[in-house]
Amino acid sequence: MNAPRENDPSELDRFKRDIDLVDYAQRQGYTIKKESRRGDWHHLVKDDEHVIVTRKGDHQVYLNTGDDRDAGSIIDFAKTRGGDGHGLNLGQVRQQLREYLDGAPAPARQYATQYATPPDTSRLSSLPAGDPEQARQAEEERRTRLISEVLGVKKELTDRSYLHGRGITDETLDNPAFQGRIFTAQQNEHKNTAFPLYNEHGLASVEQKNEHYKSLLPLPKNGIWVSHPTEGKDTPVERVVVSESAIDSLSHFQLKHAQDPKNTLYIATSGTPTEAQVALIQRVIDKQQPREVVLANDRDAGGRQFNINYLNELQPARPMVPVAEQEAYREASRPVEWHATSDKYHTSLKVTFHHDSAEQGGGQVQQLRERVEHINQTQQDGPSLAVEVQRSTEQATIVRLTVARADTAQLEVVAQELYRQREQLRTAVERQQESFLRVDYPLAKDFNKELEYTNQGLSAEQIRAAAQREEQQRESERQQRLAEAQRQEREQRALERQAQRERENTPEAQQERERDDKRFSQAVFGAAVTEAEPRPTRSYRSEQEAQEQTAQFTHLKEAGVVLLKDWMNDNPPPTGRRASEEELTAAPAPRAPAVAVVAQAPDHPGVDKVATWRVDELAPHTTGRAEAWQAVLESDGYIRTSAIRSTVDEQGIRRAEFDMYYRNEQPEIALIHAIVTNTNARAAAGNEKYVGVSVTESEQDRVERQQAAAGATLQPRTGPTREQAAGEAAQTGSGDGAGVERQVLVRVDEVAPPDGARGQAEAVKEALVASGAKASEVQSTTDGQGMRHSEIKVSYRTDQPDAAQVSRALDAVAAQPGSEVVEHASHRVERQETARRQQSLEAGSNRAELTR
Q1: In this structure, are 694 and 755 located in the same domain?
Q2: What stretch or stretches form a coiled coil here (predicted)?
Q3: Inter-residue contact 297 to 408 (CB < 8 Å)
């Protein structure tokens, strides 16, 4: 069968008719939360998104309950959710749905699974199609029945106890504005306070509230709670106040109206406003023609998001103009428009500039970038707003701004400036009168909470302080939940690392390491080294030899040097995994170079050299490649690196860099020289694993390192194995050999303690110093989620009398949640063996003392 033409409209109809939208959504990671017995509607959930799938004629349709803009058929569903959330064009949708119907693997995307088998359309075909008019009447009957069950026959407010408990007085409830707008709902002995929602057709739904109870009828959220004017029905309205709940509207009236007694109409949306509700609010404005609209939403991320969108969507009363023998509202032009959305941790603002040329659009984007840069510079904890140009044409430019939910106020500042910019770009006739839209935030989280504090006799300053304490408590609880999630993730990673170590310690893995030792000796040194006579061997005689003889080696392990190509095949650095917004927008401060301890080490005299590694991601919106390269360099302890610094360009490509520290006096300088030289050589040759990787340094440092490498010696292990050496040491005792100094890096992640308070990192340092180790100052940074990341550089000598105590302290720190001890695996085994020997000697001495 020939594939349909790319623009064949019948193919789209076939997709709608033949694809089971519920099955398709499940394959995208959605789960069924609830469904009707007949199977004609389903409630699907993914993350914080709730989708309702129902039947319309001969196909299924969906509705995102949190965004009325997100609705339609399987075509719309695939279009808005494809491309890793960036959307698909119609041609890409056709291709994806063809593959779905044909049973082919789906295009790679986050969370998606492969379509192993073609979808079963039998269930879809068996669903009742029904008559559209009959379905509408049935839905109308259902709505009427549900509302009647709540409000009963006699609609009146007979029980005011709940409202009194929320601080609402009878004087407020008896105002003409609220007569016939609040009722008592009673089912059996249960009584709730009911707030009816209206649209242009009358009653649309009902919200019920009581202590620890809130319910909205399972009906489309296309109505709003609206009061009468405060001076009575049919009086000219001067002001409209929009809030999230009817309780907040009552509280706002009780707190504010006496101070400014304009004739006011109150509107509430019962939570997140839908597109239908925003349209209703605009129609109320068109009809009542108020002089101002007050946005009285909560003082939190959600309330700020609502205000941002109202600034874009609401306008003064629109005039009616004739259109095709009818009348319609005349909309003002929108040279700039925006819309805010949010997830669990972030708020995003999508800004669209409409312009006459690409140059004009570039100027508008540059102006926005400068404003964002100014906001970022004023932030005490560093930049928080991220800007990304998503699409740009001659006629329009789309920009996306993202910030942590806790910093949504910064997006509100941007939206207010966009609002002023749009008014300047409009013609004089279209411009809104100044201060038509006004934001009025409560002193506390919401107006009802402010009313509660006011009724307690608190002053405005005391209310602000109390609200701040509550916010800090909520933030602390959120941070604790986040820390717990991170702790669980660390434990999972620890289990995975343990499993990896167990795999590496199998007899087969040990044999492979021994073979690597042999290959190393033969390839690099040109001759096998006998186990009886370990001898130092020259590593490199020239730059050319470094490139030719050691092009395969960069990764030193205790058993020798492993071929880079073999190691990379087993542990390839990622080409880029999908990055979270936090990862892409975070800008961590570079941590101080790890020189404080090493500078005092007797076996590392000299001066630290610095080479900068630059690692670019290979695909937009990915991360992790630089971290993989850094892990390779740091894993064996003879190379130290700084924190990773990164930026994201307009195409979404992350460009990262970090500094590598070394000394020409190090025994491993020949290997360090090979690492730098061969990395650049392979990148220049186009080796796929080295694309986007480079190492830069001064010419003087390169020459000095080459000279040091040419004269260096490198002695691989050719004597007994570590296990054999440990056994011999246990038999012969600690020996008279001089000890060496070891360095360890301790990392501690914790919820940032209050200013001046002692955190977990300080406690860890104190415990390590008490055990006999040397420790540097705690170096810390705090991220946007309030997590504090600390590092402590620790050193000890293997021959110090209290080495066993130091070892036990390090093991205890490593086992502590939120702490990590970074050290060479052989050094860890060495100190633990030393600790066991010291403990055995102490135990023998104690027994001898008791006997004596």
Answers
A1: no
A2: none
A3: no
- Vertex 388 angle, CA 386 and 392, to 5°: 155
Helix axes 460-504, 447-455, angle to 10 degrees: 130
Beta-carbon contacts of 12 under 8 Å, excluding residues fewer than 6 positions away, are 75, 94
**Residues 701 and 760 grouped into a single domain:** no
Based on the fold, state whether residues 627 and 685 are members of the same structural domain.
Answer: yes
Q: Are residues 350 and 313 in the same domain?
A: no
Please check whether residues 630 and 750 belong to one and the same domain.
no
Predicted pLDDT at 480: 85
What phi, psi does 409 have (nearest 5°)?
-60, -30
Residues 280, 168 within the same domain: yes
What's the whole-model pTM score?
0.49
Q: Is 304 left (phi over 0), alpha (psi -120 to 50) or beta?
A: alpha
- Per-residue model confidence (pLDDT) at position 153: 57
Pair (397, 286) in one structural domain? no
Q: Tell me whether residue 837 is in a domain.
A: yes
Q: What angle do CA 825, 829, 835 make, to 5 degrees?
A: 145
Residue 467 lies in a domain: no
DSSP string across 574-612 = PS-EEPPHHHHH--PPPPPPTTTTGGG-TT--S--EEEE
Task: Output the CA angle 227-231-232, nearest 5 degrees.
Answer: 60
Identify the CATH number of the domain in which residue 748 sits.
Answer: 3.30.70.260
Q: Which pLDDT score, from 0 to 100, does residue 763 have?
A: 83
| CA 818/CA 789 separation, integer angstroms | 10
Q: Where does a domain end: 341, 371, 406? A: 406
Q: What is the pLDDT of residue 635?
A: 65
Mean pLDDT, consecutive 10-residue stretches, the chain (852 aa), reads 52 85 85 76 84 84 79 87 70 82 45 39 52 65 74 79 94 94 83 90 88 84 93 93 96 94 95 91 93 94 94 90 74 90 86 90 90 85 83 89 88 92 87 85 93 93 90 82 83 83 80 66 39 34 45 34 36 48 45 31 55 87 82 72 83 86 81 80 76 88 82 45 39 50 87 78 86 88 81 88 85 82 79 78 49 38
Q: Which two tokens stand for residue 722?
A: 């570590």
Within a domain: 706: yes
Locus of tokens 């609209």: 293
For residue 122, the 8-state DSSP code is H
Neighbours of 719 (CB within 10 A): 12
- Whether residue 313 is found in the same domain as residue 337: no
How many domains does one find in the chain? Answer: 5
Helix (H) or strand (E) holding 681: helix 669-684
Distance of CA 44 to the CA centre of its chain: 23
Q: For 190, how many CA atoms within 13 A lie in the half-sphere containing its CB?
A: 11
CA distance 660 to 633: 8
Backbone angles phi, psi at 268, to 5 degrees: -135, 150
Domain encompassing residue 97: 9-102
Beta strands in 798-839 (DSSP E): 819-822
Q: What number of H helices and E strands is found in the chain? A: 26, 36
Tell me if 806 sits within 8 A of 841, measured CB to CB. no
561: Cβ contacts below 8 Å, ≥ 6 apart = 516, 520, 524, 553, 555, 671, 716
DSSP letter, residue 754: P
**Residue 528 resides in a domain:** no
- With CA atoms as reference, report the closest residue to 38 among 115, 130, 118, 170: 130
